[in-house]
Design goal:
It is a single chain. Strands 1, 2, 3, 4, 5, 6 and 7 form a 7-stranded antiparallel beta sheet that branches. By secondary structure, the protein is α+β, with helices and mostly antiparallel strands. The longest helix is centred in the middle third of the chain and has 17 residues. It is built from 8 helices and 7 strands; from the N terminus they run αβββαααβαααβββα. The two termini are 26 Å apart.
Amino acid sequence: DVADAELRSLSIDVGCGVTLTGIAEDHLWVMSAVGAKQRRPLGVAPGDHFPLTPPYGAIAFAWRPDDEIDRWLAQAPLSQRERQHERHVMADIRSQGFGVWSLEPRTTPLAQRIQAVIEALATDPSSRQLRDQLTELFALFGRRGYTSDGLTTRSHLTVGYALAPVFGADSQPRYQIELHLLRPNMTSTALHQ
């Protein structure tokens, strides 16, 4: 209940959907989901699971040893250059304490498709097929993380998500807070507020 109140306040302040996600050994699960005007962010609901494979899991793995990060990255078909970029993003997550993922220009038209799936979920909230479609569409939105250089050198950014860890007693992320910004044109000043 305390987390829900904080997430609601954050959702109102930022004007977007917010989720609290638990980090398990092999998956992420949505624990709480709130959105502006009492709408769930993009149809995500408590209990939804996402695999802990790229692009999901950067926050969970950012503080882990290099060999674990390498095994995690090996699960995705990435080029050597893409792997290097992901390692840089994760190092920046460790130093900044948060991560920001882009809203790819090619995915902007998918927003209408996502909205259609969300509307369908409103009438059939237990549909596994609709939730699976939504999971696949989500993965397209936040594929490329910004490095700290990318966040500071550009005046305008396309932003899909911003995520921050919540640490456990072992100094590892046990939860993550996700802002579902989905903004095709956001100033770096607004992002840092």
